[in-house]
Input
Amino acid sequence: MVISPLTRILSPLVFAVAIASAAHAAPLPTEDDYYRIATLATPPDLKLEVSGIAPLPDGRVAVAIRKGEIWIIENPYAEAPAEPKYQRFASGLHEPLGLAYREGAFYVVQRSELTKIRDTDGDGVADEYLTFAKGWGVTGNYHEYAYGPVFDREGNAWLTLNCSMGKKLVPDDAWRGWSLKVHPDGTWEPVSGGFRSPSGLGFNSTGDLFVTDQQGNWFGSGPLLHVERGVFHGHADALAYCKLPGATFRIDSPLPQNLKTPQAVEQVPHYQAPAIWFPYRKMGMSCTGILSDSTGGKFGPFADQLFVGDFTMSLITRVYLEKVKGHFQGACFPFRQGFQSAVFRMEWAADGSMLVGETNRGWNSLGSRAFGLQRLIWTGKTPFEVQKMEALSDGFRLTFTAPIAPDSIKAPEATKLSSFTYEYHSTYGSDELDVQNLNIQSIEVAPDGLSAKLTVEGLRAGYVHELHLPGLRSAKGQPLLHDAAYYTLNAIP
Output
């Protein structure tokens, strides 16, 4: 090839311009560009180990703290140099791990009871503590946490009880590891059993109750569990109460060992696999609170999806759920990391921002503090994300928050898909088992660029399907803010 003198002169110039353009290119967007974290100032002598949050009708916010108090915060949306004001409302509680407000009263679960708390004389301090429900067993075992309450649309309060981690000192009627439904008159009933450490409770937009649990014995990784009457969630300690009056299921024989999750679904009576698995480390290490996006668009493009906190990695993930063959399943996505401490509770503030309550209880968590209260604020900019991932009979449909460049998703190595499952056994946790790379046979992009169908060979029911889209670009050339998704495919449509 002959290179003209003109080309010889221009080539260095073009190269220099390209280098200069690259040097001045705009940096890639970050999570902070779309969802900003603001930290609420706290009094220096107050260890605000937030264990429950209840926004009040007048714009104030109440928080329970793990060491037994309720505080009310005035001007909770203040940012420096202004500061919110704190007033102690109640004290003397036994490790409350949740908080709700209804019709002028607070409801909080102590270890041994559900308590209704009111200020009857209007001086801003509680003067009435009423036992609303009680009767489950508790000892001095520090694992015997009680979580909640959350109220359903009929006015029932829902609680979950931590199992005792194998201890034998628990009373015969303790109902450890069960969910409890407390009726408006204070009577209660067990509903489902098989939890290990069910620290998060929350409803989706249609009123279905979900609970998070922790990786450990019988849970290969952190799960999101759908609470239904008569369901066994998997942990063996709850089986001690199956013979009691009121138990909603019964399993008499010992649980089988060393099964994969799909085998456990077939062989263990009443066992219902998690709606979502949060793969360990990839999507957190210890999932906590649950919050459904009911903001009507004030928090971005994820209406009706769930947000789930994580304790150890101090982050929040996002969950899209759908119902297939009568049961929930769906995908989880990375959402926002970088909180100052373990994310434990979340609630919606009056302005549509998310209140994030934090405490690491002295255990390990990422971040710069051991406790605190922060707000997660949508900046109004829409991130380029996989908005949802839906299961099809022959693959998955992806929906995006912005149109994509069709060629980018079809490029070699642009899309990677694999699947794996977990072991169901009494040993702590599980590696990812039976990992297989899957063949994406074809990709069809919708004319508007907002969705794509992936036809996949080798879908496996009962397996987590891990998707990565490192090469995907929007129509404007932007990469995904998060290019990973994890779909728990309990059933193939």
In short: Residues 32-378 form a domain with the Neuraminidase fold (CATH 2.120.10.30). The first strand starts at residue 35 and ends at 39. Residues 1-24 have pLDDT under 50 and may be disordered.
